[in-house]
């Protein structure tokens, strides 16, 4: 399982791009995690699924609301990672008004989530293999803080907790 001091696992995440530019075409674009985190401080939070109750009502809105404060604390980018495809993450981002604040990163096949060891088996609930709920600060690809929620909880992966940690780095 991923821990503080580890490098993020190699691999790719996808993001649905709404506006063509910066070498990105419209629609799903694939990004290399190592290249995307190089030389940056990235706030990453992961959750079980797009459009789910706690994720939509609290988790994502908290990061959207705290985006400016996180950036003022030295965070270059904020990523929301979920085991959903890029089309779903793009639609959810539009719904949550994340543009310019939170990058909605799709881990459609759960490859990144499995590599971190932070999977959540929701097969009995009809949702398949998903991500645990967590947050972390990553500096130049290395995990500096990691907050993993207990099952069914939303207490330590929120934007306020990560903001305090970013201010302390």
Automatic annotation (TrEMBL):
Assigned keywords, A-Z: Antioxidant, Oxidoreductase, Peroxidase, Redox-active center
Protein name: Glutathione-dependent peroxiredoxin
PROSITE patterns: THIOREDOXIN_2 (PS51352)
Record-listed E.C. numbers: 1.11.1.27
Active-site annotation: 55
Highest rank taxon of the organism: Bacteria
Protein family (similarity comment): Belongs to the peroxiredoxin family. Prx5 subfamily.
Domain called Thioredoxin: residue spans: 2-168
């Amino acid at each position: 399982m991923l821990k503080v001091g580890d490098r993020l696992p190699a691999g790719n995440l996808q993001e649905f791009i709404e506006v063509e530019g910066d070498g990105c075409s419209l629609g799903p674009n694939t990004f290399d995690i190592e290249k995307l985190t190089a030389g940056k401080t990235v706030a990453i939070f992961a959750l079980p699924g797009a459009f789910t109750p706690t994720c939509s009502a609290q988790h994502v809105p908290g990061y959207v609301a705290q985006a400016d404060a996180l950036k003022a604390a030295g965070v270059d980018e904020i990523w929301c990672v979920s085991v959903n495809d890029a089309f779903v993450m793009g639609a959810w981002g539009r719904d949550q008004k994340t543009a310019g604040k939170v990058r909605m990163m799709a881990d459609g096949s759960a490859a990144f989530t499995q590599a971190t060891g932070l999977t959540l088996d929701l097969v009995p609930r009809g949702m398949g293999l998903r991500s645990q709920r967590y947050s972390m600060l990553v500096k130049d690809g290395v995990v500096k803080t990691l907050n993993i929620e207990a099952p069914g909880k939303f207490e330590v992966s929120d934007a306020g907790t990560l903001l305090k940690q970013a201010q302390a780095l």
